[in-house]
Structures are given as structure tokens and as C-alpha cells.
Amino acid sequence: MTTPSRAFGPLDQTRTGWQAAATALARPAVDLASRGPDAMPVTMSNHSHAENWFELLTRPLWGLAAAADAVPDDLWDALAAALARALDPADDWYAGDFGDADQRCVEAAAVGWALATAREHLWDRFAPKAKDDTVAWLSQAYKTGVVDNNWHYFPVMVGHGLDAVGAYRDPSVAAAHLDRIGEFHLGGGVFKDGPQGRVDYYNPFAFHTYALLHYRICGDDRFVDPAADFARTFRSWFAADGAAVPYGRSMGYRFAQGSLWGALAAADVEAVPWGEAAGFSRRLLAWWWDKPILTPDDRLSIGYGYPNDLAAEQYLTAGSPWWAAKAFTGLLAGADHPFWTAEPEAPGPGTDANPAAQAVHVRDAGGHVTRLNGQSWRSKMRGGKDTYARLAYSSLAGFSHAVDGPGLEAAAPDGTLVLSEDGVHWRGREDAVSCAIDWSGVLTTVWRPWEDVTVTSELQAFEDGWHTRAHVIETARRLHTGEGGWCVPRDGNEAAVANDRVAVVSRGVRSEALDDGGNREAALVWPMPGTHMYWPATVLPVLTGVLEPGRHVYRARFYAGRE
């Protein structure tokens, strides 16, 4: 386990340095994938082993195609040779035919993208049979059924690849997918990720990134304005130190979070000043460059701030993290583009309310971002309650995943309120009955953990690093309550606990919880190891109480900041 800076050297924040970074991160994946499916690690996934291996082979293409001219020939040779075997139905390495809503369609988009942007580096290395196999396989992908969400872009990207090599396709197929994408637009550049989808990082690293790359390839600008609109509010999701607020599914894609900034440059769309776009992009990759996110053989691991399968949904495999390579699409902008020449600009404090996303982002004076959240959980996704339905998320302190087991140690309720009938088994917010955001950035959400329990939570964050939570709880049953502040690393922590206030400091991060009503006790909880997104072991300030049937009001303040 190591960091990219240790494995590959310091990050050079020039275009040449980013080309080298894209190549360095891709090489361990290509080296392993080019040994064939049998070399692919077995990872938990709801896909076949062949599909998992194909992810490992193809996802680095998102970055390599953008950095194409700087990628060594031996890497292109290995990719072309392995891809030729993967698309040959007679070969043992064959990636497989398509079923409806098949995972292979995702990776077909990466192949189409690479052919559309770096044709001479890949296609020209194929023998005639490999070219025929590639066209036949991509033609399958172009016509296959997709999941009814951001996946509608995948056949579109496949179509661009077929165009690049002179193969026929029916343009009405891509047109129908693009029309369906337009139906997901909620306004203001915000897209829901399918009929039952949420607003999360699939907006920037899927919908808007693909829209801008599509525009670059063919000039279709129908979704350029929504991408620009979203970018202007997306600024509030990033801390001054580069960190993005962790929230939603597929956090295992890590710095794909910043792909929108590079895609704007690739499409030459100045949605925000180029100095701002450059700053968000460069600081984000620098933040990740010093995190222990690699395996001992320098591959991107499954996890977030460290290798951790617990942080992964059921569809993530050992090849999945290379979706992060989409962060390098800005390399398609030339060295003289202002995305590369402008002086990076740092963001200041501010509040951004986004009703369509049911969220308020507040960047405090220390540069850290608190997300106040009104969205509901995603029951389909492993960990969907924690990734989508906590009341607050933090760029500085991350968040935790609950695990099976008794007590608040297993519930790990940072950023949220949890309730229990027995003080052992805990339940937090899942579905939201409603969410409202007022002009000042106060978010109010109503939720019902049981049919006879209604909680109205009012949330507000401030530029001094504090945020407040007020809960009106109407219950017909006796309840135990636990409400968490923010976790800090467990090692070397120093804590002070009073009756109604608790503070803990570790590795320069300070977390405090203060009960304003005097009706709860302050304490420290040691969540189960591996539950947190940033740190393997943590300590959490909590406020605990017991409610009898009736109407009750809780008020509290929570702080996270640097010492």
C-alpha cells in the first residue's frame, strides 16, 4: 500500500506532467490486463470474471487516449495486442457477446472513445482480422439495450468510434439515446441519473463529461449549456485544499470527481474562468496524489482514502477504479490553452444552495466544505443509506459506512441522527418525505424511520466551520437516540468530554459536538475499523439520549476544522 507520489514521484502540475501521470497510473493496469483474464484478481462483483478483466484492460483508455502522443509505444502495443484478443470470438480471452443492459457496454464506450480520439495509436496497430472483429463487436454494443440512466451515452461514444474507422451505423440509434438523456434534465444543468436516480457525481463525471466530449467530436451542442450551468454550481463541491465532498455512489472512482473541469477544456467551453477550472482540477489530483490508494504493485485499489472493499458497491471490481482516468481528458486541450497556462485560482468562503440536487454546500473560512443533504437513500446500491441519506457530509472529515453489529460502534453515525428501540439496533434516515431549501441556505427534511415516528430536521452550516441541526421528533414509541459529529483518526487522538459537549483532536483535525438543549449526554464512540472513507480507524463525538412517547426537540452544533 503506497501513494502515487511514492510510486511515481511528485506530481508535475504542467500538461507534460499530467501526461506522465496518466501514463504512470495506467501502466500497472495494462501490464496486468495484458497477461489475460487468468491474471485478473478475483474481486467481489455482480459481473462475470471476463467482464471484470475487460474493465481493467479498457478503462485506462479514458486517460491514455487524451495523453496519446506522450504514451510510449510499448504501452500502445500491449493494449492493442490484448484488445485484439479480447474482441476475437474464437480466442480464450474473448470479452463476450452482449446481453441486455450488459456491463460490456460500459467498456465499449472506452474503446469507442479511444478510436475516436487516438485512432492511429490503436486502430493502426490492428491486423485486418482484428479490425473486422472490433467493428463487429462494437456494432453489437451500439445496438444493445442499456440501463435507463447515464448509460445512454455509451452507445453514443461507441458510435463515434465506429465513425472514426469508417464503419456503418444507424444514426437513429444514437439520436434516440440522446433524446432520452434530455428527459432526465431537471433544470439548471442538473440531471437525475435515470427515473429513480439521484443527483450525485454522475452529473459531472458522466452526463456532463460525456456531453462535452460528444460535442468535441461531432459538434452537437445540445447539452453544452447544461454542462456549463452545472459547472458554475459544481465549484461549491470542492474544498480549498482540493478535496471533493465525498457523497453518493461510486466513490471508488476517486479523482474522476474532477473530470468535468478537464472536459470543459477539451471542448473549449469556458463555463467558469479558466484559472478556476485549472485550480479545481490540479488541486484535486494533488490531494489524491498523496493518499495511500495504491496496492503494493502500484495499481489503484478498491476503496476511497485507503484500500477498503467495504466502500465499494456490488459492481466495483479491481479494474473499476480506472474510471478515474477521465480526470485527464483536459489533455486534449493544447499546451497553449488557458486551462494549462492560467494561474490557478483558489476559492473563498461561500454558500451555494441547489434545490434540484436537494443540497446546500458551504465552504467555510478554512476552505472546507460541508454538504447539507436532503436526498433519499439508494436501496439498490450496497451502502446506499450511508452514501446518500446522511444529513451532512464533509470534505475534511468524510463520512462512515454502518456495518452489521450492535451499538453505535457499528452504526458509526457521523453526520447524522440515528434512532433505536433497544439501544442496540439503530436506524437512520432512509427515504425523505420532503426536502425544502430557503433563500438563506437552511435545508429542512422530513423523514419517517417508523410509521409512527416523524422527524423534521432543519440544517444550517456557517463559514466558521460549525453547522447546526435541529430535530422535531414526534414518536409513539420509546426511543434511544444517537447523533454523531465528525470522525477524526483514532491514532494519537486527544479528547475532552463534558456533560453536554465533547471535543477530539487528531492529526490536525478537530471535531466538536455540543448539545444546545441540555437534554443529551456527550460521549465518544470508537466506530468499527474500516467503516470510514478516509481513515482505517476513527473516534467519533456523539450526543445520546432517550425519548418517551411524545413530541421532542433536539438542537445541537457540530464543528470540524484544522487545529
TrEMBL record:
**PANTHER family annotated for this entry?**
LINALOOL DEHYDRATASE_ISOMERASE DOMAIN-CONTAINING PROTEIN
Q: Name one Pfam family in it.
A: DUF2264
Instruction: State the taxonomy lineage.
Output: Bacteria, Bacillati, Actinomycetota, Actinomycetes, Glycomycetales
Q: What is this protein called?
A: DUF2264 domain-containing protein
What residues does the DUF2264 domain cover?
14-345, 363-491
Superkingdom, according to UniProt?
Bacteria
**UniProt-listed InterPro entries:** DUF2264_C (IPR049237), DUF2264_N (IPR049349), UCP014753 (IPR016624)
